[in-house]
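Supplementary Methods S3. Input chains for the assembly prediction are listed below.
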Amino acid sequence: MTTGPITVDGRRLWESLMELAEIGAYSDARTGLRGVNRLALTDADAEGRRLVIGWLREAGMSVRIDPMGNIIARREGADATAAPVVTGSHLDSVATAGAFDGCLGVLGGLEVVRTLNERRISTRRPVEVVVFTEEEGVRFGTDMLGSAVAAGRIPLQDAHDLIDRDGCTVGGELRRTGFAGEGAACFSPPHAYVECHIEQGPVLAHAGLTVGVVTGVQGISWQEITIHGRAAHAGTTPTELRADAGIAAARIVLHLREMVDSGRYGALRATVGHLAVHPDLTNIVPARAELTVDLRNPDDEQMARAEADLAGYLAELEGQPGITLSTRRMARTSYVPFDAGIQKAIAAAADDHGLAHLSLLSGAGHDAQEMAAICPTAMIFVRGEYDGISHNPREYSTPEACARGIDVLATTLVRLADE
Amino acid sequence: MTTGPITVDGRRLWESLMELAEIGAYSDARTGLRGVNRLALTDADAEGRRLVIGWLREAGMSVRIDPMGNIIARREGADATAAPVVTGSHLDSVATAGAFDGCLGVLGGLEVVRTLNERRISTRRPVEVVVFTEEEGVRFGTDMLGSAVAAGRIPLQDAHDLIDRDGCTVGGELRRTGFAGEGAACFSPPHAYVECHIEQGPVLAHAGLTVGVVTGVQGISWQEITIHGRAAHAGTTPTELRADAGIAAARIVLHLREMVDSGRYGALRATVGHLAVHPDLTNIVPARAELTVDLRNPDDEQMARAEADLAGYLAELEGQPGITLSTRRMARTSYVPFDAGIQKAIAAAADDHGLAHLSLLSGAGHDAQEMAAICPTAMIFVRGEYDGISHNPREYSTPEACARGIDVLATTLVRLADE
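Predicted structure tokens for the full assembly:
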């Protein structure tokens, strides 16, 4: 017989979310809104990790840190030899974040364990809650870094050697913050992985629903483009003698937008989030420009054609006198479909909680897409307000929506843990 | 009878230029070239000023500092009551400068005085060498600042209140560096002002000439544009729901280039030298973008039409959902024609030195355009190598070219000082 629906303590969950959000908190200069800044392996991130580790231990879990700094908290099951059911997410944030991205998945896992303890519910399989390192990829340039190492896609040493804009390495920052752990870098395959995360998009809100079952994660392509031109005096250098790196950068930004608008690449999304020129002075033609290109596509073939289009356009620009370009691949993931069985288990749990739901694709990258390579995996999405705005202090999901999402997580995990 | 041509000590001039270039010197990371960074009223600028003041005093000149930090060094003439003949330029630089921009005019004036002393040449009128404060406008956003105050165009208090990106004021930095002087902020009208400067353009080099007579300075329009959009997640936010400040900035950059290429605004030059987006992260749609627009035009009417075109384009952009714009005027100067008599005196001096020359317009702004408002003024241009590249470590004029330019300056100044 299947376990009935398990309802968590939504208020306790909310209080944990709000307490964690105080770490790395800042007040947005323009809007006055309160935001969160906990870039991976900064002092703020380390402080947040220590707070959560304390809570996990108070919940009676054993906690270990692996060599990538991933935090693995375990609640034993009746059968210690059985592969665990794993949930989790990340605590690191972008520089202008809200309180929910990643944190809901980690503190939701904690809340599930707290609830199981109160109800004295034991499971056959162990239940593990994992905090993955540098999911955002903002500081060291590669997202889902901790889960990619845990799943064996990125070698540990390569990850440790990544460098931020100030020349700090992942390995060095792991040691500095006290999160350079021990043991195997790769996880032994769990029985299943289920992650609850805010949608970070408008679909659930527009459908008037609270939770969604995630069918997969669209492909992501990140690259950094550096353009070298020639510095020159703004007042005296004839236009025809200029090699303006800033103009070349602007052409790339607009070409990407044209690629999207053309519809030639299906559901392609393109973003230039980082753009800088040097020497960056009013009366000097830019000698150098640097930008990042973030492409997303739910279709690998269309993504490949979009990347080829961009590469061709860059080659054209390089044909212009005085302009040279170089590109650096930052991240590249294919479309990841989630496990049908786990999706069904999530949908059944949502039904049992009386929650209408829909199935949707994830537009953002998540640790779950890495775990999908080593075990049956799927995700639960929780509705966000304001069109699901995220990576912004306005990011917000209601206490009710967070609680319902974690209800579904709890019921799904317990049922999978009894398989 | 007119004084014959006066030849200066080119080697002594060159040694002074090279010694001054050691202050604020840096080695360019990419090219390995040696550059100069002496932004106005930084410690490096102050050190350069003190070195030059020492040299001016050694040359027997009396030195005073005015409330704007302008340095006025005076060599008395036979008639102490006669209005002085003034030369000069600036010692502050852009962040990626060479050794000649401004420095040639100041050290050239010093070399003229050193030569007059050696030859025991006395003049009827006093000869003054002036170092103007913050000519580049890079640090405090308004170029020709010191000369604009001296000529009465900008009130002293307004200049003192200008703020750099770190929140430092001109007044505060003048006090901190010890250059908050006394006396009148405005110069009493000199008999004439003659400035020698590197061309910072390719005209003389392409013509195979060493010196040129400057007929005037084209108009300059500087403004800063700030674009407010809306931050959003790069992966999940549908393109139609975005308000991307970076794309709006790119459109402005390319519209300016189209304005130039169209030929509709005559000899218009347009440069976006400063461009930044916020929060400047790979996977976040820019919420804000900031850029500077530098327009130059030798025709005031065409400049006005170009500014109107840009303003109209900004209004169009503001019509797009979620995008708002604000502009800040940084600097605005009209076309400044130089005095025909002074141009003739310079041309005659060049002839007497056996130097072929041509007349040309200045593409860059110079302190001379401010002095032109209070006395007969003109400039001597000295050829630059490599297409006259400037505001760059590659900026270079030969010792020969520098010496010949200052020969012409010396002969011109002495003749004007005997009028």
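Residues 300-318 of chain B form the longest helix (19 residues). Chain B has a mean pLDDT of 95.
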